[in-house]
């Protein structure tokens, strides 16, 4: 998909993303302290069934489970020598799941580190990390890229710079935000929109964070400064953490879909669900939109 094709598509209709991956994998047996990407490759049918259900529910785009399949994260698990093959295999699973009924986005995420803080990471090191993963995602045949759950505007700019050096695919960027629109590492949601669209993002928005019931004013504020589509992929409400550490999300599918329509009216043109959502949530959301 070209950037122009993406822009024309987003100008015609509301684009529907998938819902959660991680919280559904945990329900299926993903344990604590293991590499999620490796677990998926060891249990491929779990991912295939989930993403097939999202395509059935109406998702136009599903995220390949390459969320943290970058050198920094895989080195932590001693899997860095497998990075190219893992990205290829994870994209292949998503393609097998959707069978051409939805686009497959190569998924990238934050390093979790702040640029320049105590020498943890530099812009240049992040640029190289993202560039390497994007090369493998492009080789695997993704239709577009998404940088999600980003906590820093500067790090998200590194994704855009890396993508620009490697390919001409559309890049969607979504930050994880507080309910007041503040970015974890500094700045605001509207700062993110202005900076990222200027640097070539094809869409900018938010994911994870809180529930859709708390984000109407944030989405409206982002829309006011946007020249690209605004994304909204929030959680199924705020979780309650049990004594065993399990996150229980408090918003049911019907309420989620209702609140998401408020965000669509506020200006979100690309919508889906994050933690706690399932194909049922996406099916009801798609039904309300279409």
UniProtKB/TrEMBL annotation:
Binds 1 zinc ion per subunit. Keywords: Metal-binding, Methyltransferase, Transferase, Zinc. GO terms for molecular function: methyltransferase activity; zinc ion binding. This is Bifunctional homocysteine S-methyltransferase/5,10-methylenetetrahydrofolate reductase. It comes from the Bacteria. The keyword Transit peptide does not apply. Pfam families: S-methyl_trans. Zn(2+) binds at residues 208, 274-275. The lineage of its organism: Bacteria, Bacillati, Bacillota, Clostridia, Lachnospirales. The gene is yitJ. Residues 3-289 form the Hcy-binding domain. The keyword NADP does not apply. Its cofactor is Zn(2+). One of its GO terms (biological process) is methylation. Coiled coil: none annotated. PANTHER family: SLR1189 PROTEIN. InterPro entries: BHMT-like, HCY_dom, HCY_dom_sf.
């Amino acid at each position: 998909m070209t950037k122009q094709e993406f822009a024309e598509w987003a100008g015609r209709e509301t684009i529907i993303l998938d819902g959660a991956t991680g919280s559904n994998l945990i329900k299926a047996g993903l344990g604590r302290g293991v590499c999620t990407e490796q677990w998926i490759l060891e249990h491929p049918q779990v991912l295939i069934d989930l993403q097939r259900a999202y395509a059935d529910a109406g998702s136009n785009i599903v995220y390949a489970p390459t969320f943290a399949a970058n050198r920094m994260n895989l080195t932590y698990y001693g899997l860095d020598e497998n990075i190219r093959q893992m990205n290829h295999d994870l994209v292949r699973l998503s393609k097998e799941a959707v069978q051409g009924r939805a686009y497959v986005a190569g998924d990238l995420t934050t390093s979790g580190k702040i640029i320049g803080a105590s020498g943890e990471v530099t812009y240049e090191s992040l640029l190289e990390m993202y560039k390497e993963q994007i090369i493998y995602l492009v080789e695997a045949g993704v239709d577009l890229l998404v940088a999600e759950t980003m906590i820093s505007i500067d790090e998200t700019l590194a994704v855009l710079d890396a993508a620009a050096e490697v390919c001409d695919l559309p890049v969607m960027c979504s930050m994880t935000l507080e309910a007041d629109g503040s970015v974890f590492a500094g700045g605001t949601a509207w700062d993110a929109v202005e900076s990222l669209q200027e640097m070539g993002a094809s869409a900018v928005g938010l994911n994870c964070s809180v529930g859709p019931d708390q984000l109407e004013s944030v989405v409206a504020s982002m829309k006011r400064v946007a020249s690209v589509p605004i994304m909204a992929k929030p959680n199924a409400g705020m979780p309650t953490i049990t004594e065993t550490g399990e996150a229980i999300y408090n918003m049911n599918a019907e309420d989620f879909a209702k609140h998401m329509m408020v965000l669509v009216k506020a200006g979100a043109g690309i919508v889906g669900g994050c933690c706690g959502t399932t194909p049922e949530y996406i099916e009801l959301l798609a039904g309300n939109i279409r």
